[in-house]
Description:
Blueprint: E1 3-11, E2 16-23, E3 27-31, H1 38-46, E4 54-61, E5 71-74, H2 78-81, H3 88-91, H4 96-105, H5 122-134, E6 140-144, H6 152-169, E7 172-177, H7 180-186, E8 189-194, E9 197-203, H8 204-209, H9 214-230
Helix pairs in contact: 4-5, 5-6
Amino acid sequence: xxxxxxxxxxxxxxxxxxxxxxxxxxxxxxxxxxxxxxxxxxxxxxxxxxxxxxxxxxxxxxxxxxxxxxxxxxxxxxxxxxxxxxxxxxxxxxxxxxxxxxxxxxxxxxxxxxxxxxxxxxxxxxxxxxxxxxxxxxxxxxxxxxxxxxxxxxxxxxxxxxxxxxxxxxxxxxxxxxxxxxxxxxxxxxxxxxxxxxxxxxxxxxxxxxxxxxxxxxxxxxxxxxxxxxx
Length: 231
């Protein structure tokens, strides 16, 4: 499968917000601080950009880009992604028997389908979200900081699950995050965003161990220092 963003240009009336290009060969991380353009990029790929923005998107893809069919998203906060008043089973856009298959794929007991979101932990809810994302048989899975609301052990388990399922299902990954360390677990390639432009990109191992730009170096060092403090 091919997925190349030849150019994504996003402008407001007063300024250029994003101007990037990249290729997702298998798993690609887009890393940056708040305001760097990560969320704007995701919304553009989903066709959900604000109406007051001018978006030009040139993509080469071997599959049609259509949310709910070939492209799915795992959002940042599983607690706000589901209706709190509706049982899990009713939130799948599938028959019960098919929903059970996807619940088993993410290592959840099918009895969870009978529960409300408030009865599940954060990690369990994120697994439900992943199951729902996979139920559309996506060619591209967008990950919008999916481990931010989770503790360290649960975060590691979720990243390993996504990687395992990628091998089984065969989707491409675009991982949008500020957690540079997490990209080691999930991605082959990385791009670092600053003010809507890519300042450095390459293999994850190469960029993390030998950053060429001063901005990337500072961002990486700061990220790993903060991770050590949290531990």
